[in-house]
Design goal:
Low-confidence stretches: none
Number of domains: 1
Largest sheet: 4 strands, antiparallel
Shape: elongated
Structural class: alpha+beta
Order of helices and strands: EHEHEEEE
Number of strands: 6
Strand order of the largest sheet: 1-2-6-3
CATH class: Alpha Beta
Length: 96
């Protein structure tokens, strides 16, 4: 599996992409900023100016059902926000 797992396509990230040239990706937990920058440059052919990363821990969740309480845990993941150079953009919908 590569460094970039999937892009984050939400209303908030789409607005940031159009306004400020920032795009979000779910990335490998062990990847550093330099590796993420190279992976985005290689995959999309754009010039990356800045990389910010955030690590999210998994949360404990439980729900009440007829058969009792079901409990589990959500997955932990790492998110990267990429700022592109002026005039650059990524089109996630071009392959559809």
């Amino acid at each position: 599996m590569g460094i970039i797992i999937k892009p984050i396509i939400t209303e908030k990230m789409t607005a940031l992409g159009e306004k400020l040239g920032r795009y979000g990706f779910v990335v490998d937990k062990n990847a550093n900023k330099i590796q993420i920058k190279q992976a985005v440059k290689e995959m999309y052919g754009v010039e990356v100016e800045e990389v910010n990363t955030m690590t999210y821990a998994g949360k404990r969740k439980s729900r009440f059902t007829k058969s009792g309480v079901l409990s589990g845990k959500t997955n932990s993941f790492k998110k990267a926000i990429i700022t592109l150079a002026k005039g650059e953009s990524i089109d996630f919908y071009s392959n559809i």
